[in-house]
Amino acid sequence: MAVIEYKISVNANGVAVVTQDVLLIEPTDKIRFNADPATKNLAIRFPTASPFNNPGIGVIFPVASIAPGTPPTVGTIPVVTSNDPPLALRFVPHFQENRRTFHFECGQVVGGAFSSWGGQGGDTPDGGHA
Question: What is the pTM of this model?
Answer without folding.
Answer: 0.72
